[in-house]
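// run 5 | inverse folding | seed 20
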């Protein structure tokens, strides 16, 4: 073990930044990176059968307001991402928006996470979508045990060294 801080670049011949010279996993040192405003938007869908969709649209979910529970689950998860993703940096999450839209096939989920920090919030946005999806599945599983989480992905990010990126650009 050394007291020398690691630089951002990889020491491993593969070039992977999360491996040290011996191939062991490590957290990348971002202390020298500049703080900047950063956002990430992720999306996903919970596929549901017609009965569950009707219950969501009509307020008939036996456990209560499934969409509200899913929204809160997503927000909580965004704030706790480093507890769930081993090499994810703990950062200040400054804002989280979670939109849930009931569609004929289920529920579309879109989450945007914002920070001003040294590293991005893509993992927080993805974790937010996954937790919102799981919260929703938990709320409707008695109606639709075949509920399926699908299509979780980053849609857009801003800030940092690479700047703006949008899926499809």
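// decoded
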């Amino acid at each position: 073990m050394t007291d020398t801080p690691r630089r951002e670049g990889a020491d491993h011949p593969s070039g992977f930044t999360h491996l040290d010279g011996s191939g062991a996993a490590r957290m990348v040192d971002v202390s020298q990176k500049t703080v900047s405003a950063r956002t990430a938007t992720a999306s996903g869908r919970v596929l549901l059968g017609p009965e569950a969709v009707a219950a969501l649209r009509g307020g008939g979910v036996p456990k209560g307001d499934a969409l509200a529970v899913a929204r809160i689950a997503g927000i909580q998860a965004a704030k706790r991402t480093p507890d769930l993703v081993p090499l994810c940096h703990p950062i200040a999450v400054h804002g989280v928006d979670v939109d849930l839209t009931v569609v004929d096939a289920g529920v579309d989920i879109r989450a945007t996470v914002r920070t001003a920090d040294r590293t991005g919030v893509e993992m927080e946005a993805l974790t937010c979508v996954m937790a919102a999806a799981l919260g929703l599945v938990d709320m409707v599983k008695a109606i639709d045990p075949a509920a399926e989480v699908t299509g979780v992905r980053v849609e857009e990010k801003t800030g940092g060294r690479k700047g703006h990126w949008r899926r499809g650009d």
